[in-house]
């Protein structure tokens, strides 16, 4: 046997290795706890609409044939809770699919065209008035589909939490392009503003149940932004409205 000589240097190395190892275990544990938390939150969020559907189905069965208002109320509730469940499942699948694997396909695109297309397809789904400033020659090297998904989430929030005109402003600032989505809606209380990017966080669950939120929109938006190198900035004043700005870095391929 060759005697292993634990001289000072190798002892230091062992200590260092031990520390790295401990740090790795800590990281794994934190990740595991986060996963557990996520699964538990997801199950809880899916259970709520299911319970509501179940109880309305039972009410419908007992009294739906005789009482027409109960019939209408139950059918409407079952329908809206099913929509919620579908949205939630779609978002959960999106998160699971993109957990580590983002298939980014960048190309040089005209920002005005991309945003206009997004607004048009959004307006096909929801009849909402949206204004957009016309700007020529804003070229960006980005993943068009991911940017459109990101825009859709922000526009959808503007739609859910406001009733008036939504404005979209495009521009160039320093070395980046920006897309600003401005709504004149209920706004977000200051104390909640640093939490709304957390998974499943909703400002007021009662207020949001009517709007059908899941609390996964903004976290997904943030993940998409990270994947395409964009930054999201949100500023909001209660009862005045919310402005979300998406910053896109210009690189040599954009020009
Ligand atoms: P949700 O599906 O509930 O809309 P999000 O993650 O997209 O989930 O948003 C988190 C919460 O932030 C929402 O529940 C809502 O309370 C608040 N919020 C997001 N966007 C806006 C907005 N434009 N105006 C007011 N509140 C907003």
TrEMBL record:
Chief site of localization: membrane
GO terms for cellular component: plasma membrane
Official protein name in the record: histidine kinase
Catalytic activity: ATP + protein L-histidine = ADP + protein N-phospho-L-histidine
GO molecular function, one term: ATP binding
Location in or out of the cell: Cell membrane
Span of domain Histidine kinase: 41-252
Residues of the full protein shown: 200 to 454 of 454
Entry superkingdom: Bacteria
Boundaries of every HAMP domain copy: 1-33
């Amino acid at each position: 046997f060759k005697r292993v000589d634990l001289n000072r240097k190798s002892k230091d190395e062992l200590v260092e290795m031990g520390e790295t190892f401990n740090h790795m275990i800590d990281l794994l544990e934190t990740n595991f706890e986060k996963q557990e938390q996520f699964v538990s939150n997801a199950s809880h969020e899916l259970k709520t609409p299911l319970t509501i559907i179940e109880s309305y189905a039972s009410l419908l069965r007992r009294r739906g044939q005789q009482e027409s208002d109960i019939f209408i109320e139950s059918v409407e509730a079952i329908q809206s809770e099913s929509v919620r469940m579908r949205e939630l499942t779609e978002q959960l699948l999106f998160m699971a699919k993109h957990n580590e694997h983002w298939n980014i396909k960048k190309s040089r695109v005209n920002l005005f065209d991309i945003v206009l297309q997004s607004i048009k397809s959004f307006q096909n789904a929801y009849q909402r008035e949206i204004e957009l400033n016309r700007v020529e020659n804003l070229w960006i090297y980005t993943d068009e589909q991911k940017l459109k998904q990101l825009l859709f989430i922000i526009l959808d929030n503007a739609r859910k939490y406001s009733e008036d005109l939504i404005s979209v402003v495009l521009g160039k600032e320093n070395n980046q392009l920006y897309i600003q989505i401005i709504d004149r809606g209920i706004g977000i209380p200051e104390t909640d503003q640093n939490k709304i990017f957390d998974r499943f966080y909703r400002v007021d669950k009662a207020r949001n149940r009517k709007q059908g939120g899941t609390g996964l929109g903004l976290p997904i938006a943030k993940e998409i932004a990270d994947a395409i190198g964009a930054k999201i900035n949100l500023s909001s004043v209660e009862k005045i409205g919310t402005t979300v700005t998406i910053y896109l870095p210009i690189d040599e391929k954009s020009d």
